Amino acid sequence: ALFAKARDADYAALEVELVALVQEGGDPVERGASLRRLAKRLEAVRRIDFFPSGKGTSLARHLEQALAPEEQDMPEVPLVDASAYLGKVWVTRKRPYVDRLASFWLVRRFIDPYAHVAFCDGDQCPQAPGQVRFDMAQAEFTHVGGLITFEVLARSFAVLARLPERLVRVLRAIDLEEMDAAPAEAAGVKRVLDGLLLRHADDQELTARAMDVFDALLATYQTENTGE
Questions:
Q1: pTM, to two decimals
Q2: Which InterPro entries does this chain map to (predicted)?
Q3: Sign of CA dihedral 181, 186, 191, 193
């Protein structure tokens, strides 16, 4: 009974926060981040709810309903013709981190296996023939609304369905610094990327090493999905 009362109190506190978030409105990106953090905390409480009364399930359903409009509010990203982007040099800022590294990995693995990457100083580069700019000012592909560049590319080239949803959540959490609402493995992925950044002063080498990291991460999710 004591355990049940403790969990019911936890659920009640989370419900108060949920109601406040839904009622206050505000910036949809920030609200979405707050709701995802709340979902993470709810998940933690439900894991230690050994005598469930149904309140956890009910709250999870209400939270899911609150998150649904956040997903619907995501901006529309027009599809592009993938063949028009073959044989290009993809250009971004120097010292790439999670979003830029993952974005080029997506390009290499799902769009053009022979794509090359180049880096420029500053936050913008002039448009040039044969080049595609990404994750920088005035780029052909960059953040749109609440979407990070990786998500914009995935939607633009219609490959989102081929990506594990959990992988996308990890990348979003690291890039948007929403680690408290991230999947458990996000901290480990971030630490590995931090290590690559420290070890490799050459951006080409850094990017090459990151390709292996994302390949390995994808493989773990695919193995989970196949039940191996």
A1: 0.72
A2: ChrB_C
A3: negative
Measure the CA–CA gap between 99 and 175, rounded to whole angstroms. Answer: 6
Domain residue spans in the chain? 2-72, 82-226
Q: How many other C-beta atoms lie within 10 A of the C-beta of residue 90?
A: 26
Residues 113-144 have pLDDT tens digits of 999 999 998 888 889 999 999 999 899 999 99
What are the tens digits of pLDDT across the range 69-111? 555 556 788 999 999 999 999 999 999 999 999 999 999 999 9
- C-alpha 185/C-alpha 223 separation (Å) is 15
The residues facing 117 across adjacent strands are 90
Give the total residue count for the chain: 228
Q: Give the per-residue pLDDT at 63.
A: 84
Rounded distance, CA 80 to CA 153, Å? 10
Coil, strand or helix at 121: coil
Q: Rounded to a whole number, what is the distance in angstroms from the first to the last CA of the chain?
A: 39
